[in-house]
Amino acid sequence: MTPVHTASDYPTTEASRRTAEQGCFGGEGTQSLLGQMDMNMMQLDPKASDTYDNEHGIRGQYRDARKLGRKQRDARQVLAKRGFVGPPRNPIAVGKSIIRTGPIKVLPLSNRLPVSSSSSPSSSSSSEEDDPAAIGDAVATRLSSMQSAATRLLHRANSPPQVPFPVKTPDILRLPEECARCILDWTNERFENRFWNASNDWGMELGPKMGLWTNQAGVAREVVLRGDTKAGFRMVQICFQQYQSIIRTEQPPEMLLKTLIVAFYMLQAGPELGASFVRYSASLFPIVLGENHPISRIWHHINALGVVSIRPYLWMILQAWWESLKQRLGTRHKELAVHRLELIRSLHRFGGLPMMSAKAGIQQMVDDMAADVKYWTLDYVMWAKLELVTIYVEAGLDTEAAELLEDIGRRIEATPDGYDIWTQTVYWYLRAQTMESLGLEDEALESYQARYDACLKAVGPDARHTVRALGELERYNRQIGRIEVADQLRTRFHQGWRIVCDRAAAVND
């Protein structure tokens, strides 16, 4: 069905407006309208014109309108000679013509204008043929028919081509909204079915394997980036194998955040490796959780766009995740605060959040925690400060990092029992990186050694934390030219790394 349009739907010229004001079929109105139709047809793109011809037969209607126009003009001239007044100038008010009274002689109607198909010759009397009112009715009917055809033609000539298929919003623009909706569905379902609760230790209850898996992936990335590709890829393969078991048995609240972090870990180790992990996850979720599961839908979008293309939208996606949890748990939930810090740091590391925004976000959390140390404890406050140092180090702000580390170091030395061993090992690691960037070799080597000693004391020589610290110490010794020491450390690293990988594979089995 052809859509009904009004004059305001189309652009008009001054000539066409004058034509409408004067009346299309009175005086020179018809010629003005037909002339305007000629101009509109000439302005059409030839290809567009051919399209209209094929779809609507417009050119044939145009010829019909011209033919009717000529017949109308001839009829008006005959009526004028016989003393008739033409139809009203307002084309909407076309009806019976106003006829001047008086004795006149007219030609039979059949000799001048064709009659309506509803009128049969046998039913028409001679008196009806000579009746001026009948002539006016016939002319008015023809004028109304011609007006309808001409108006349709004018509207079609000015209307834009119809799109043969619906235009969809690009996936890249729909991604944040679709992912936010999926995240909300996921969190609501998990809380309402009591899979998650609001206790402060929910991460330990629900995601021990997820935290271990993320840490192993991070260590594997570091080993690959140091050039030990074979050793690093063994752990990468184990992480791929473990993931199915994790999402089947746990589905902790931080699963989305941790999976995105690992995706970018893999991307840093190699573009093809990152893309491979995204494809693997996108195919695994529908199998394990079902195609309609919110996480399956999220990873369908991420896989379609690619992990690199979603980088500008990471903040919106993960902010929606954090807000959905905050509504349920509140801002004073300790585990959620840890994930908030991890979220900001990871987004900055992977290019999804500017430096100033990341700094402001973490500084606000540091101030809030420091204002209520009794609730948050010293470890949480110090952890937030160390995350701020991490932002400085990764942004190359070595002076700012060194100043904040000096303050943290004084506090740890003053109350060593107030901070757990992992807070201290992170402090030594960040201090080593900062001293290395500043070119202070002795201070950097001392910090790497202190980190290794702290891990060795806490968890033993074959734990992944200790082996990771050993690898960092080996790399820096090699970098500053202590090759013999570095070779010895490398041998010990590979011995420990085999144990770490075997232990991880056994957990997967």
From TrEMBL:
Name the record gives this protein: Clr5 domain-containing protein
Organism: Apiospora aurea
Biased composition (Low complexity): 116-126
Top-level taxon of origin: Eukaryota
Region (Disordered): 1-28, 49-74, 110-133
